[in-house]
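G., the chain you wanted modeled:
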Amino acid sequence: MAIKDNKKKKQFKKLMNPYRLVVVNEETFEEQFQIGLSRLNLIVFLVLTFTILSLSVFFVVSYTPLKEYIPGYDSSEIRKKAVENLFLADSLISIYKKNEQYLNIVRGVLSDNLVFKEDPNPNFSENNLTTKQNATRNNITPADSVLRDLVSREDKFNVVNNTRLAEELFLIVPAKGIVSQAYDQNNKHFAVDIALEEGTPIKSVANGTIVFAEYTAQTGYVIMVEHDLGMLSVYKHNSILNKEQGDIVAAGEVIAQAGNTGEYSTGWHLHFELWIDGYSLNPELFFDFEK
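Predicted structure as tokens:
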């Protein structure tokens, strides 16, 4: 044990032994300068120097543009664009899903083949959700529940319960006549049929954009208008279409003329449908079609 202690003391003494570094002129042997040091001082000096150099290189590379010259390291501009592209891709996916859902709704309206979801989750107030839940308990469909939130009373004079709808949408009766077939969701008749004379003007119920104006074999000349707040109005069996897809129309503007076109038509009439967020509503609760 004593031998080991002696060895440690000798090693420590070697580290602390003083040395003198003298620099002299080779020709004149004149002393230029001298430094007194030990092995321990030299080790500490080298460690500190290495640490300072390492920290300096780290900070220079991390916080200056020099890091962009390191192979495999992306520039800040590339990373910024990558983040922007990520957000853009996410937004495009959301837009694509909304457009896909909208196209499915339009396709369903044209084919009269719609399936109601159990939880429509329309963009109304939270109080409406409670109304929908109570309606489901009483075997009332979600579409009827939404309708009860939209209409203050089941009258025929466009009195809408939703404040935003009342302020932003002014509904105009598309045409006046005798209702030959009422709205019947159970039999998948999501519309009212209004008996009209040949060539009766058909008006847009509100401001909007024509999203479909074509001829179909089953329902003849069809025109669809997209309005604000997710509302869509559909007019079928027309004889003439006065507007084309993409046209902007105002409330009350003539968009078509009553007809008897299509395989499903049984006489001169207007087949009128009203949709909000993909759910059909009974137009008679919004309009008075009687002359």
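Residues 2-63 form one domain.

Shout if anything looks off.
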